[in-house]
Amino acid sequence: MPTSVEIPSDALDPFERFNRAAGKGSVRTPYPRYAELRRKGPLIAASEAAGSRSMSLEGSDTPEAMVAVHFDAVQQILRDSDHFSSALYAHSMGVVMGPTVLQMDPPRHTEVRALLQKAFSKSALRRWEQELVRPIVHGLIDAFIERGRADLVRELTFPFPVNVIAGMMGVPEAHLDTFQRVAVEIISIAFDPAIAMRARQELEDLLAPLLAERRRRPTDDLLGMLAHAEIDGDRLDDEMIYSFCRLLAPAGAETTYRSSSNLIFGLLTHTDQLEALRADRSLMPRAIEEGIRWEVPLTGIMRMCKADTTVCGVPVRAGTPVMINIGSANHDERRWDDPEAFDIRRPVRQHIGFAAGPHTCLGMHLARMETTVVLDAVLDRLPGLRLDPAATDVHISGEMFRAPGELPVLFEA
Ligand code: HEM
Known about the structure:
By secondary structure, this protein is an alpha+beta fold. The protein has a single domain (13-410), classed as CATH 1.10.630.10. The protein has helices at 13-21, 31-40, 46-50, 71-79, 93-97, 108-117, 122-144, 152-157, 159-169, 176-185, 193-216, 222-227, 238-268, 271-279, 284-294, 326-329, 364-381; strands spanning 43-45, 66-68, 84-85, 149-151, 230-231, 234-235, 300-305, 309-311, 314-316, 321-325, 386-387, 396-397, 403-404, 408-410. The longest helix is centred in the middle third of the chain and has 31 residues, at 238-268. The model is unreliable at 1-12 (pLDDT under 50). The structure holds protoporphyrin IX containing FE (HEM).
């Protein structure tokens, strides 16, 4: 099992390219704009959200897209798979990933997801924690601990989750750099289709011999489990397995890197809360949920209305694409007092950062466990941790995907 990976000097390049396209630097905080949208209603036309003319195509029967911005509207839509379908991902992420759970509706979705769920069971997580997450996190910290300074994004929060997901799949250490790069490039489909399609093929080439080996001889890693999993007595075919891995690589790498970076940023800029957490680790679960509520890594997802309905009193016609603004829902003042504030002690109320309903994030328990391990390690091993005062203007940015570009810190070596 791999324990750490050497980070090449241009390791952030694919992320850097991706982050720029996703609004890094250009969008520092979308939250005041989201608050304005919430004043207009729970679910509003895309043109109203953009402050422009109607976006319906003239002479077309296709309804204009809508944007869900209140918590209750977002929750209702995500829970209601009778009226709202995920199938439209087939035209975006599905092009590069292939057919995954993300774009399936029940009952097929229920069937496939039940099978994948086993890989994320409590006993599987306990094993990943001991065999992968802890050694990877501590190995990365070992590499910089004597320096008394580090960039926690480049040296810790960026490399650790991608190494974990690679280890779960059984990817050998020699291929970790390639895996790390393609995990990021796959989700570039919206703005760099050629790179995304190349990454699709590269990941398949990397996995093909590993899968063939596991078809012959079962192993107890994720790929070994998928190689022998069955639906109604039929084995999953290779394409189905590659598709799932193409979803898991970025899902596992990208979101956890962002959520753990955002939480560490929140703590470093609210040092009373950092010290409270250091002294009382029972605050950890609340700190993790508050980090995701306050600065969710992925602000928006999509659904398509498939039968006329109403959401929070607003009529929605069949055929309407709906943009689900998770970032706005997580800051809804109807649900949280002072929603813009980062406060790990605020009363617990479920946020919607992991979505809701049948597509609720499959990796949420893994993400929570990974974040607990990395935060505990940082608090235990880096006394006197603080943002480097020489670094000016460290901040979170991005529209769809949010994270700090860097976390330069000092600590007592
Ligand atoms: C803090 C970290 C994470 C956040 C905020 C997050 C967020 C989300 C969201 C919002 C969805 C719903 C997408 C939709 O329905 O359109 C989702 C689905 C999913 N996530 Fe995560 N995720 C995180 C970590 C992970 C990890 C670590 C993994 C796996 C290694 C993972 C695997 C998945 C998968 C497979 C789905 C599809 C589930 C389905 O369609 O049934 N996620 N995630």
